[in-house]
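**User:**
Make up any protein.

**Assistant:**
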Amino acid sequence: MLLIIVSILSFLPCVMCKHNKCFTTNHLLRIPHEFYQPGDFIIGGLASHIFGSFAKEDFREILITHQVRTFFIMPKNYQHILALVFAVKEINENPTILPNITLGFHIYDSYTNKRMTYRAILDLISTHPRYVPNYRCRIEKNLMAVIGGLDFGTSLYIATILGVYKIPQLSYGSFAPQNMDQSRHTPFYRMVPSDDHQYTGIVELLVHFSWTWVGLLVANNESGEKCMQTLQPLLSRKHICSAFLERTPQASYEYNNVHLLYLQVNQVIVRSKASAVIFCGNSASILVLQPMLAQCERENVAGTPMRKVWILTAQLDFIGITYPKRWDMQALQGSISFTVHSNEVQRFRAFLQLLNPFEENGDGFLKQFWTLVFRCLFPNSNTEEKPSGSCTGEEKLEDLPSSDFEMSMTAHSYSVYNAVYAMAHALHNTLLHRSKQRAAMEGEMQELPKLQAWQLHPFLRSVSFNNSAGEKVSFGENRELETGFDITNLVTFPNNSYVRIKVGRIDLEAPPGKQFSIHEDQMVWHKSFLQVPPHSVCSPSCPPGSRKKKKEGEKFCCYDCAPCPQGRIASQKDMNDCTGCSEDHYPNKDQTQCIPKTISFLTFGEPLGMCISFLSLLFFLLTLLVLVIFAKHQDTPLVRANNRDLTYTLLMSLLLCFLCPFIFLSQPERVSCLLRQMTFGVVFTVTVSCVLAKTVTVVLAFMATKPGSRMRKWVGKRLASAIVLTCTIIQAGICTVWLGTSPPFPHFDKYYLTGEIILECNEGSAAMFYCVLGYMGFLAIVSFAVAFLARKLPDSFNEAKFITFSMLLFCSVWISFVPVYLSTKGKHMVAVEIFSILASSAGLMGSIFAPKCYIIMLRPDQNTRGQLIRN
């Protein structure tokens, strides 16, 4: 774990700094001395874990022996120091910021040990070279600010001491703690945004790729615990399950014990069906992941390596292991890493290319770095390891694997770079403010007190500037840098180099809902994946038309697929439940979407409506033809003998009966629904009452021929008219009551048929409807009975036998109508009623008038008075 602490110290003339260079030696590590220039301020720093990680935590032994007993060497963090040096160099060469002031720096190492961290901080605030806190002599160090550390725990250790002195601290890798109250009271500034945005971005990434079954591997430290406690509720809210939750064992740097320590965790990871694994930890946790990746690479399930997409948090960095051997980066091919947003800094690559270990630049780290990464030996080196060759100085940093060193500025180095500039701008603004105060006090016998560290705080909180990469740097409400995160895709190469491809961004300045963005087409996946992006689910997706059915005893992400019940749909994949369609829609065959229902009613345009219209018009014309024939031959004995006026009334009512279907074929509306049954009932009552009147007239006529009969006074037109009028008035009264109590109305039946909405006329009161039909049936039965009794009366033009047959046909039609009508719905119900109207009307016309038309038209010899008298 790398920790860089940079301190700004007030530099006063002293006996140690008489010359152009001020060389200072630190008892922990050698300090670069080229950058110590005479001036008003010096930047000093604390550098940790660049070259070593110690097996023992006894700092007294380190101080005495100055020996570095190294098990894992991490030279990559050396770039953090170079970013610090580069920033200081740029500021010193820039005349617009801190003019006439030269910055220097001190670098200290914490060795990932809190006792060493406290020791280094106490040394910072003490008189050099003596370790006497709060006692200063010879060179007075006026410490202004500190940069560090990389982890929150280390930063908090530093803040414990610096908070007493109110010395500003800029942490370049420390994210906010889990407790927000603690975050507000931590006395340091973070050069990174809140990692809550990072965790939200991880969840958005999982949602984007539909990864609902993911593994969670956390380091066994505070950073890992915070990640776990923050991520789990977010995953649950997005219906994402954790396939496993494993903590790494306590870190051990004994290489021979790595396999035994991590074997159990490896087995859980390898055997899991989850293709996506989230790894949370701090900056040093990558050393825990490396042996686990090596073990996973060797594991096989059914002969096929189980590849994983590793999702790494911003606290991690790809630190290469140079000793005792480099680890294979291929296991991380296609991994997705969240990093603090950074940009390319101009001239940094050129600055790195000018580094030469043979030049006298005072950088005590450079030769050691060169020896480790290039595995070569400098003359007069006391290193026990025997490298393969000697260092020539012609080695190029560009040739190193990215796991050892990167030529582009990493996210952590970018934070160090911005931290140095933030301090410089704050100090610049502080000095400007003091100069204005001094100008206002001119002429007074008073001097401003010496600049103290606590006076830098208000200017740090309000600092805002654009760095050389063109990006704005400023602190937010919680003293966090107002920036976002980059989403990078790792592309590895056989020589252990890799390239980070920025494939997405978490932009905190974007509008809500658009802060997360990713370019899936730019991503590179591991070649072993058969499908990209890979699936990471517990159960296959349920296709549209089915729903998820939970498996008992398992997490909600594990389920079976069950088809939707009848009448319900699932329009999307993986729906928890099927939904019903609205009343005017119905499910399609696959039950994947709702289709609008069509409105169904009997119309003229459809084939059935055309047939009915044709038959109605045909019978109407035939009836009209009969009426014309009877009118033309109205003076013939046959027409006169059968009550001519009553015959005309009957024919006129039959004409109206054949026109009734056209009312039924119109769209059901309020007026048409009111006219349908009323018109049908009244017109048919007139027709049946005319038939009844004809039958009664025939019977009375024969009864009146008897000597002394009193029936003669009833024989005549008045009786027939009275019968027709009385019967019609009774039916009209029934219809009037119907209209007054519960009239028919248009009704949409949305449930009877699946794909149709039936537009029909609701009869309002079914009882009144059957009263109308029952009354007509009563008249028809009476007519049938009377005609049946008079069917054998001797008369040449006796209609009784024809009326008997017509009434038999009429009653048969309407008796059959009732059960058929009740068993149908919609347009078929209307068609049944129309058919009954046409059939009964046609039966009446054919039975009564067809024989008469035959005699009138084809047998005129029988239509004579003599024939009538003779019979």
About this structure: The mean pLDDT is 78. The two ends are 134 Å apart (CA to CA). The domain at 3-191+345-441 is CATH 3.40.50.2300 (Rossmann fold).
